[in-house]
Sequence to fold (949 residues):
Amino acid sequence: MEMEHFKTRHIGINPSEMEKMLETIGVSNIDELIDQTIPYDIRLTKPLALPKALSEQEYAEEIAHLASKNHVCTSYIGMGWYDTITPAVIYRNVFENPVWYTSYTPYQAEVSQGRLEALLNFQTMVSDLTALPLANSSLLDEATAAAEAATMMYALCARNKAKSLADTLFVDEHIFPQTLSVLRTRMHHAGKNIVVGDYKTITLDDNFFGAIIQYPNSDGNVEDYHHFVEKAHAVDCKVAVATDLLALVLLTPPGEWGADIAFGSSQRFGIPLFYGGPSAAFFATREEYKRFIPGRIIGISKDAYGKKALRMALQTREQHIKREKATSNICTAQALLATMSSFYAAYHGPKGLKKIAERIHSIASLISDELTSMGYKQLNASYFDTLKIKLPATISQKDIRNNAEIRNINLRYFKSGEIGISIDETTNSYRAHELLAVFAMAAGNSNVFMIDDLPKKITLTQEQLRTSKYLTHPVFNSYHTETEMMRYIKRLERKDISLAHSMIPLGSCTMKLNAASELLPMGYAGFQKIHPYAPIEQVQGYHEMIEELKSMLAEITGLPGVSLQPNSGAAGEYTGLIVIASYLESIGQGHRNIVLIPASAHGTNPASSVQAGYTPIVVACDEKGNVDMDDLRKKAEEYGNDLAAFMITYPSTHGIFETEIKEMCRIIHEAGGQVYMDGANMNAQVGITNPGTIGADVCHLNLHKTFAIPHGGGGPGVGPICVAEHLIPFLPGHPVMFESDLNTVSAAPYGSAGILQIAYAYIKMMGADGLTEATKVAILNANYLAEKLKDTYGIVYRGANGRVGHELILECRKIKEISGITETDIAKRLMDYGFHAPTLSFPVHGTLMVEPTESESLAELDRFVEAMNNIYEEIMEIVEGKYPAHDNVLVNAPHPEYECVSDEWKHTYPRNKAVYPLPYVAENKFWINVARIDDAFGDRNLVACLCED
Fold:
């Protein structure tokens, strides 16, 4: 007998339940349902050629073996990644806790108050340390944050008529090479110039819209940029600073010497190296630039009763709303990692962080002195943690490298011959001794003393040292014992709904099971403690996994070329589009700049196309939600000579498999364009059809949707792209680890490599049969809900045979007409039933989009149906006049705990109706912390950091 199949644990519907559901839908078997749902002409003719499915035990053994092939060394490479110590209380209670890692983006703020507070703490931490008043709640990584800074500075200058023609970005030559490479990619495809040079000698004029400098710089030197910033501002050139949060504990922060933007990575605040990611970038700027800052901002508002409440502020800036006019295409933060970083700051507090920073700097100073005494020359006049060592003529880099690798030490090796050493939090007296021994051996010096004590030694000048206070709010000064930190984390945790509580029925976001067996191996040192620039021979386990994952994704998508570098879905969209642009340039068609995008497309599609240098043109949809084929033909002909690409989501964002998808691809190809398939809904294709079969040239995949990587409260995400053969030469390169740096889009060569193993695990344990069955059950579940809810709410769009795909859109506009109750009221009332709301008013205003996923049980689906239909009955009570329009359970929802337990109850309906609308709710009540939040108040009175009141 075989070991138990993982798919039986992942897929929530058993065979007997499936029979009942199929009977409800009105088909005899699931294949009949699939035949009615997915067009026959795009169906795969043979099963996916994937490895045999592994049991959970078999996979655990395989992944442990791969981890053992990664050689864990002490890394002094630096360059944006530093080993760190994740406090166990944070690792155990956040990183390994499904309440934190399975929650969704906090669009429904009332059931997200815990993670919103943690992210507000993150913003406050960043704002304090950079001395800039406004920070966002994280971006993808340092290099993409640099690209966002460049885009923002250009937008700021474009407002000024005198600067509207400025088209050049200055970048100091001593910036991390990966950051420069990502900036080159972004500026090239945006049609902007980039000048790389010495900040001391560059002459800035009206042609420059922005400048980017690094502090401390790539060599580790701490420069004085005061005069440069004054020079830039004199010609209205904005200045963005790549910086290090831990260094800013000691150094004068950028906001105090005039910087307009500060950005960088919070990785060294307790986030493992993970071979390059995930870790949260930070981004801070001036208050007056709040409408231009990319990413999400958490703001303080109030609820319906005046109680302080948190929410995502200024969402009208976001790409879902502004589309092609958005300031950024960013739709994924790194919320889980930002949360961990904020807890790290709270756990250590200002005194603890200063002690860590001073210790790092003191060790660097000690190493500098000792190496100088051995005959080496330390080139950095001033530094925080990084030394640049010039070797004597008698010693080669090879000598040092051989000695270092004997001791399991990795150093940075400059092409010009110097050695880089970056000290980190994990460096202790033994490691310092071993490091010195590497250089002593090469110098023929055997008298390296054992370091018993690491004395405090500050070599920075008084002018360079920070004098301003930081992290003064009580949250950073109250939780320094494990007991207090554990309780604080748990206090926030109890305020949030996640998959640990109930089904999250969001359409287009695929909140499926994130299995423990997929996530547990992330704790292995062989995956956590690997620097992204470690020598290739030290990371054989990672590379075996990466290559097999790429091969499996190519098989699943039918597209042979794969890049894992993009670290979000939106980044994947952007990457796919610039790969198309590079291909078109290579065949003399670089003038093609039009992208056709259906009206039903994801909001990121138009924003991504603009970021990639294209002009988006909307293609209409017909009354059934399909692409209007006449309009597509008309626009393909009209823009034929300039048509670069067609962006199509399939199945569509309307939740249906359009029957003419192959014809759409043919029309675009005949016009000379490429077909970009948005892979957000790939979980409705796997094993049954794929982009290559349909005719796409490129697609991106949301590994945090289809392939089971957790959403983590809004991130992390991974958005690899798969491409046809002719596009492979244009896939992203990397300046440090690959032969080419063409189209680099992320700081690390494999993006967020640390979480690739989750998708790898999902595919390896599901196998071809399991993946195909998951697709079928996702479609089954959606059609079951459609059948159960059609007579109350109604379904907005159905496919040619009356079926929905893996998601469905519930009609709420007619309800509003007869009752005044809106889709928002329904969404808020669902919280009283213990459910997160479906997707609200997207892609159709006045509707709710539901995606049940294959992981949910029939009992949970029925519980959701019962809740939705009971809410419908509550609406009918309003229509019938039983409860007034101004005081009923829907317009007052959600009902917070503090209101429900108060002595007074002023509503016309009974307290029990509000609190326990169905028997199951009483058995497992999720208590809500705040009443409905006043969004407008929060935007009118933007407060995006903690206030000491």
Summary: The domain at 553-766 is CATH 3.40.640.10 (Aspartate Aminotransferase; domain 2). The longest helix spans residues 335-373. The mean pLDDT is 95. Residues 68 and 651 are 40 Å apart (CA to CA).
